[in-house]
Write a structure and sequence with these properties.
The structure holds 2 protein chains of 2 kinds.
Chain A lengths: L3 E4 L2 E4 L5 E7 L6 E6 L5 E9 L2 E4 L6 E3 L9 E3 L8 E9 L2 E4 L3 E5 L1
Parallel strand pairs in A: 2-11
Antiparallel strand pairs in A: 1-3, 3-8, 4-5, 4-9, 5-6, 7-8, 9-10, 9-11
Chain B lengths: L2 E3 L4 E5 L4 E3 L2 E3 L5 E8 L6 E7 L7 E2 L2 E6 L4 E6 L8 E4 L2 E3 L6 E2 L4 E6 L1
Parallel strand pairs in B: 2-13
Antiparallel strand pairs in B: 1-4, 3-9, 5-6, 5-10, 5-11, 7-8, 8-9, 10-13, 11-12
Classes of the chains: A mainly beta, B mainly beta.
């Protein structure tokens, strides 16, 4: 079955540490997106990529980095520059008439 | 800037009754899409219904229908015959072709269905 896989489901980060969230899709979508969701709030766009080897900043890109070396993969790195990284992170793919979301990664700073 | 407004932070509805969740959007682009997603407590985003800006008729999908009023820039979701499993957060993002088709979200509405 086609879909998006995010891993891990839960992630704990120490202060000053970089962590990478994985997002893989087998839907053959060109465009992929990373969103952040804080408790009780909507989704905010971090980064997006419309084609391999190209990506653009979203509304809250500071403290995050991405790569898009393969069509299927769009990993997100939360760097130590992100001062408040505790949140729920959702990856999505698709465009125009339809988008598919992964099941999310809950990141907690310990 | 593209903006979505969901004015109802929380809603209650009695089981088996209908409920309308409000959504207004702000774009001057003629080509855009409107979506409704459901997010249960597990966090997954479940697609419910889609309306394109050029669609002449309101979209329907089973118990879900979209009341699309283009001139008022509103796209309200109507859920008929509410079920306990409808309790969740609901979002109405939109995408705009001019801005790369990114989905833009509002704050969402929490729906609680009472038995």
């Amino acid at each position: 079955d086609g879909g998006i896989t995010q891993s891990p489901k839960y992630l704990f980060r120490k202060e000053g540490q970089n962590v990478t969230l994985s997002c893989e899709q087998n839907l053959n979508h060109d465009a992929m997106y990373w969103y952040r969701q804080d408790p009780g709030q909507g989704l905010r766009l971090i980064y997006y990529s419309q084609i391999v080897n190209d990506f653009q900043k979203g509304d809250i890109a500071e403290g995050y980095s991405v790569s898009r070396e393969k069509k299927e993969s769009f990993p997100l790195t939360v760097t130590s520059a992100q001062k408040n990284p505790t949140a729920f992170y959702l990856c999505a793919s698709g465009q125009s008439g339809g988008y598919t979301f992964g099941s999310g990664t809950r990141l907690t700073v310990v | 800037a593209q903006k979505i407004t969901q004015t109802q932070p929380g809603m209650f509805v009695q089981e088996k009754e209908a409920v309308t969740l409000d959504c207004t959007y702000d774009t001057s682009d003629p080509s855009y899409g409107l979506f409704w997603y459901k997010q249960p407590s597990s966090g997954e985003m479940i697609f419910l219904i889609y309306q394109g800006s050029y669609d002449q008729q309101n979209a329907t999908e089973g118990r879900y229908s979209l009341n699309f009023q283009k001139a008022r820039k509103s796209a309200n979701l109507v859920i008929s015959a509410s079920q306990l499993g409808d309790s969740a957060m609901y979002f109405c993002p939109h995408n705009v072709e001019e801005y790369g088709n990114k989905l833009v979200f509002g704050a969402g509405t929490i729906l609680r269905v009472k038995s």
